[in-house]
Specification:
Layout (H helix, E strand, L loop, with lengths): L2 H11 L12 H35 L3 H19 L9 H11 L34 E4 L2 E4 L5 H8 L13 H9 L29 H25 L5 H7 L2 H31 L13 H17 L1 E3 L5 E3 L3 H8 L1 H26 L4 H4 L5 H27 L11 H4 L7
Helix pairs in contact: 2-3, 2-7, 2-8, 2-9, 3-6, 3-10, 4-7, 6-7, 9-10, 9-14, 10-12, 11-12, 12-14
Amino acid sequence: MTTLTRRLGLIALALGPAPALADTDPAAIIATYADIAAAGYADSLTTAQALQQAVAALIAQPSDETLAAARAAWIAARAPYQQTEVFRFGNPIVDDWEGMVNAWPLDEGLIDYVDASYGGPTDANELAALNVIATPQLTIAGIAVDASAITPALIANTLNEADGIETNVARGYHAIEFLLWGQDLNGTGPGAGNRPWTDYARGEACTNDNCDRRADYLQAATDLLVGDLDYMAAQWAPNGEARAAVQADPAAGLVAMLTGMGSLSYGEQAGERMRLGLMLNDPEEEHDCFSDNTHNSHYYDGLGVQNVYLGRYVRADGSVVEGPSLSALVAETDPALDAELRAKLDTTMAALGAIVTAAEGGFAYDMMLETGNARGEALIMGGVNGLIDQTRSIERVVTALGLDGIAFEGSDSLDNPSAVFQ
């Protein structure tokens, strides 16, 4: 009988008030996990509310300064949110919801004007260049739609994934990102999107037409984001459904933790977000493609995995949430394995940190994707290899703890590279 099995058995047999929880009690570890989730989503909500205020200021007084402030608020809001992505894959409540806030890539021509090089409707998506902001009366899947008022309900219920197409992303962080930065037309050259503040100006100062409707869309999308994050923060609060689900069974809770760590590390981040873009040398595959903030998104995704393992999260205000950790449980079972995974997590964070340093020094992530750019490939593959390597140790943790039924997300870019080009 393993240590974990004995502990779970003691929990099941416990009668009356629970005793003080030890550092390696699975129930206490899951409680820390839920506390970190609650804090991360609360921080995501708070920073999104700050973004909401900055957007309101931009709309009220459009200028270079208010646009820059709204962009800075968007970037600040991404840091806590990306650290919550580790809660996705093991928690159906989160995974079912995530597409409303962080879906990508998106066909931005659905929302607003795009450069002529973008093209028009495609066989895959006839709405790819619909431009809702310029079109108050729409037809979607043969049905007439009144879009004269751009509201959260119109975006959520009619436009998002319109005609059942996933790239018709009309809400969430990336729709807001596009409305703040506009398209990045620089390819793998320097520079992010450069939407002028006058796209929100009034009267004759308005550029690219429909500034009032563009402001309405930006406000409605931001309000939706705040509402969505408020919902998820509540799910992890003391009486929340997500917290109750993960704490109902300590063994299942550990499975959720490890599923999230392994799936985000391997298939999602190493594969779909990093290796795939490098294989295609395509800046459209970078996660925050309008703002050139992808380096930070990758870093904070990686940090989220480390947070869960170490049972420690630094909040947006600098305070710390920490408690009994998965690391302590693994150390009790196999000290060498715990040391191995800790070291690999550190290696990954160093590699992701090197990408951040390079990007902030002027070598943006989309520039790293350029065909034949050896420096860029080395930086990205450093992160990819670190994420893959730590996943192998996460798999060993699953075995060491005697857990079953865990399958990590995969990616053709890692598992079947030839399929990427078919």
